[in-house]
Design brief:
With 276 residues, the chain is an alpha/beta fold. It has helices spanning 3-12, 15-25, 31-42, 60-69, 82-92, 129-139, 158-170, 191-196, 217-224, 228-237, 239-253; strands at 50-54, 74-79, 99-102, 115-121, 140-153, 179-180, 186-187, 201-216, 259-273. The protein has a domain at 3-152 and 180-210 and 263-273: 3-Layer(aba) Sandwich (Rossmann fold).
């Protein structure tokens, strides 16, 4: 196996086994953030109206974007996990047409200068981004842009602080502020700095939205089981220990009605292809 394909497999292999939980309680994205991407996409020339959503998973964001664009774009969801692709196709049956393709983000299956927008929602941390950025520059049209969405847990206080300490204790190599990466470990993913230092991109911007969500104990457990970190913790320490510890911090942090209130920050990083 080549270095490139080995790195890709290390980052994505987890989704073959956590896909069954993935669609149930994932946090999704603020409608306003999706609308921002859609508005920028709709300002492109008619000849640029083709979108790739790289690392689309089960299509949560892809479907949101398709709805916001109201059929005015050709949309392709790219995903290397066969389990996630199957669920994306099932979930999209009867909805707005989206073509899902089995593909890595590091080798986009499109010709040069044929794409108006490339998106990655909650996925770019798992890419080999040196390869991904080069591919984005290759396929984007002159007016095209890249949009990366990332949900971050606001963890200074409250339940998410307890959850981060739980992850640091039980997930090998995890530290608050890091993400699962393409090598099978955890690292920081600073998309703004990476794109700003890449001469192939220009006009790098970052916007953010804070938003609250209420989980029940059952729904947060389903969410946790859909994360790479909890899967790694269960592999390292066993289901009994991890589920007992997880349920303990949920019980300690819920209100009298069994509700866990949390806050997310969604960051949108965009960049245009530099035209030489």
């Amino acid at each position: 196996m080549s270095t490139k394909s080995a790195a890709t497999a290390a980052g994505w292999e987890h989704y073959q086994t956590i896909g069954k939980h993935y669609d149930k309680e994932r946090p999704g994205y603020p409608v306003s953030a999706v609308a921002e991407i859609a508005a920028r996409a709709l300002s492109l020339p008619l000849s640029s109206r083709r979108i790739l959503d790289a690392g689309c998973g089960t299509g949560i964001f892809t479907r949101m974007l398709a709805t916001a664009l109201d059929g005015s774009f050709e949309i392709h969801g790219l995903e290397p996990s066969s389990m996630m692709i199957e669920r994306a196709i099932e979930a999209t049956a009867g909805a707005r047409p989206i073509r899902f393709l089995a593909s890595s983000a590091e080798q986009l299956p499109f010709s040069d200068r044929t794409i108006g927008v490339v998106t990655a929602a909650g996925a770019a941390q798992l890419f080999d981004r040196t390869l991904f950025y080069a591919e984005v520059q290759r396929v984007l049209l002159e007016h095209g842009f890249l949009a990366i969405l990332q949900n971050k847990r606001l963890h200074e206080t409250g339940f998410f602080r307890s959850f981060e300490l739980f992850l640091e204790r039980f997930v090998p190599g995890y530290r608050t502020g890091t993400y699962a990466d393409a090598r099978g470990g955890h690292s920081v993913a600073n998309f703004e700095a990476e794109l700003a230092s890449d001469k192939g991109f220009s006009n790098v911007t970052v916007q953010s939205w804070d938003w609250r969500r209420a989980f029940s104990i059952e729904s947060f457990e389903a969410f946790a089981l859909s994360t790479i970190q909890v899967k790694m913790a269960r592999t390292a320490h066993g289901d009994d220990i991890i589920m007992r510890e997880l349920r303990s911090i949920m019980s300690d942090n819920c209100d009298a009605a069994g509700v866990i209130n949390v806050t997310y920050k969604t960051e949108l990083t965009t960049a245009m292809r530099t035209v030489h």
